[in-house]
Amino acid sequence: MAAMLQPQIILLKEGTDTSQGKAQLVSNINACTAVADVVRTTLGPRGMDKLIHDDKGNVTISNDGATIMKLLDIFHPAAKILVDIAKSQDSEVGDGTTTVVLLAGEFLKEAKPFVEDGVHPQNLIRSYRTACYLAIEKIKELAVSIEGKSLEEKKSLLAKCAATTLSSKLIGGEKDFFASMVVDAVIAIGNDDRLNMIGIKKVPGGNMRDSFLVNGVAFKKTFSYAGFEQQPKKFLNPKILLLNIELELKSEKENAEIRLSDPSQYQSIVDAEWNIIYDKLDKCVKSGAKVVLSRLAIGDLATQYFADRDIFCAGRVAEEDLQRVAAATGGTVQTSVNNIIDEVLGTCEVFEEKQVGNERFNIFSGCPSGRTATIVLRGGADQFIEEAERSLHDAIMIVRRALKNSTVVAGGGAIDMEISRYLRQHARTIAGKSQLFINSYAKALEVIPRQLCDNAGFDATDVLNKLRQKHALPSGEGASYGVDINTGGIADSFANFVWEPSVVKSNAINAATEAACLILSVDETVKNPKSESAQGEAAASAMAGRGRGRGRGMRRR
């Protein structure tokens, strides 16, 4: 009786929403599956694109998993984890962003019946982690190294990796053209890790085939003053001076005051101003430089002065472009024109200003340091060029990864099927419930070839049965067989050059497993909408109080 009369213990504020237990876990799994369904159709060479337009009216057409996930503005707290793994895959490897979301969604989908049947999530998590470890070891075993090959062989191997990535993008029709361009650009920057050393400039107009690679730096002509037309537009082996100073007459600071006792002294002050600017320009000319670039403005006086002396100048050059010119030409950006020695000047074989579409471009080619490259992209619509840039970013990242971790695996769902077969075989050696969980993990990996077939309009069941039969051959000769997108059958992905760096797959499986385990380990969500709304009201009243003497609700006592 005494137990019945005990008061109820209230831990959380009134109005706090708590959901816990099995229902909460199933709800999180459903949310993640819904997110995976959004990007599901974008996978592979026959994947569809998504058109997303935000509240500002910006329209984005893309089939890049990470871009779509960023733009979706997902509110559900558990589903946000999938956005994070897509972003991490994008920054770490560059490609496989759709794959990682799909795998995580599928792992959770396979776990759902077990959760509903009352299996403890920790048992699932333990088995999934074991399966993940085994899968990554298998990838290392199946990977083929491209080390020790000649430069030409390496180039063609890397171009095949880039072509595999580009085949699923909007510019897939010209994948061979762009793949070789990307490989040349990545090899040009060598071991430099900075991605911004490869510039991508977009010029609307023309067609994709008009895009070109500059083995050096190219940037849009900057704003220029009168006198610019008289400057030479082409130099061979010029010296290049890079500055971070203004070369123009500056107005005095506000409220500056000069007291003169004699009106004739005024002229000497004006002359001093002119002498300072002429002295600066004279030092630039004496340095022997034929091309002068500055991050700050180069005024009309300086432009005319340089034009009279056959020197090309450009002011207000973007910081990124100036740094790339410095890296390519071997020059150093100067913050003063005093004591300009030859060591700080850059050089290149050819500098010229060229018309590209409606724009004029300054192009530095044949640079001695050569640690930079620029891809100039052409195309019809702005959205198309934007998507082409995102596609090339993925391809550049992939080629860089393949150069560093020089091992590749078969694409087209071949590696997924082989790991799936291996895990199924391994599961039979385990006694207990783990056998079922590892089996479900193996089944989840088949989502990649299945989705490739669905997106291309083929019969997924038929193709998967053929693949299972091929991969089950005891000799192991079917290990590299994947989906053949062109015929709707199966084909040796390795022989067809459908390759991807092994780091893409291992990273995707790792990230997807981690995300699935993280979501399975959450058993309660606490949400306090009342305190959130109270904070919102407090902020609103504080803002109102700032406008007037006293905020609403602040009664005088």
From TrEMBL:
Gene3D superfamilies: GroEL, GroEL-like equatorial domain, TCP-1-like chaperonin intermediate domain
GO cellular component terms given for this protein: chaperonin-containing T-complex
Species assigned in the record: Gossypium mustelinum (Cotton)
Family membership noted in the UniProt record: Belongs to the TCP-1 chaperonin family.
Oligomeric and partner information: Heterooligomeric complex that forms two stacked rings.
Protein name: T-complex protein 1 subunit eta
Keyword check for Secreted: no
Keywords, comma-separated and alphabetical: ATP-binding, Chaperone, Cytoplasm, Nucleotide-binding
GO molecular function, a single term: ATP-dependent protein folding chaperone
Region (Disordered): 529-557
Pfam families, A to Z: Cpn60_TCP1
Comp. bias (Basic residues): 547-557
PANTHER family referenced in this protein's UniProt entry, alphabetically: CHAPERONIN
Function: Molecular chaperone; assists the folding of proteins upon ATP hydrolysis. Known to play a role, in vitro, in the folding of actin and tubulin.
Lipoprotein as UniProt keyword: no
Ranges of compositional bias, category Low complexity: 532-545
InterPro entries linked: Chap_CCT_eta, Chaperone_TCP-1, Chaperonin_TCP-1_CS, Cpn60/GroEL/TCP-1, GroEL-like_apical_dom_sf, GROEL-like_equatorial_sf, TCP-1-like_intermed_sf, TCP-1_chaperonin
Superkingdom, taxonomy of origin: Eukaryota
Subcellular location: Cytoplasm
